Amino acid sequence: MDLKTWAADVAVRAIKTAAQTAVAALGVNASGLLAVNWVAVGSLAGLAAVTCILQNLTTLNLTPAAPVAVPVVPYTGPSAPMAVTPPAQPLTIPEPPAADPAVRVSPTANDVYTQATTVPPAAPPAV
After folding, report:
1. What is the Cα–Cα distance from 2 to 63, expressed in whole angstroms?
2. DSSP string, the chain
3. Regarding beta strands 114-118 and 103-107, do their DSSP bridges make them parallel or antiparallel, or are they unpaired?
4. Which of 13, 54, 66, 88 is the most core-located residue (most Cβ within 10 A)?
């Protein structure tokens, strides 16, 4: 759908919505033709029309009508998969360093992560 067709369709919907809202507002103030608050009726109808237009923005399609053709390039490589040679040495994962006894890991009260704290050195014995 092109932009002109979409705009014409949305304009018709907005006018119909504004008219229906104005009729509903007139039905509420059915005391007489001269006693109707025309500013309030016009304001409600205008708001309904703007709302209708904003809701119809989701139906606007700005993509091209025809998909773009992508040329297909034939595969001209070897028919068999390439051989993969393994590495000369097997890969090993190094061992983690030994734990330091001076560092203590304790969970915090407010967090799921842990926090490393250093253990203070022991006090010398009293003589």
Report:
1. 9
2. --HHHHHHHHHHHHHHHHHHHHHHHHHHTTT-STTS-HHHHHHHHHHHHHHHHHHGGGG---S-SSPPP-PPPPP-S-SSPPP-PPPSS---PPPPPPPPTTEEEEE-SS-SSEEEEEPPPPPPPP-
3. antiparallel
4. 13
Q: What are phi and psi of 71, to 5 degrees?
A: -70, 145
Q: What is the CA radius of gyration of the chain?
A: 38
Q: Two tokens at 110?
A: 């407010």
pLDDT along the chain (127 residues), means of 10: 85 93 81 79 92 89 71 72 69 70 56 49 70
pLDDT of residue 52: 93
Residue owning tokens 């008219």: 19
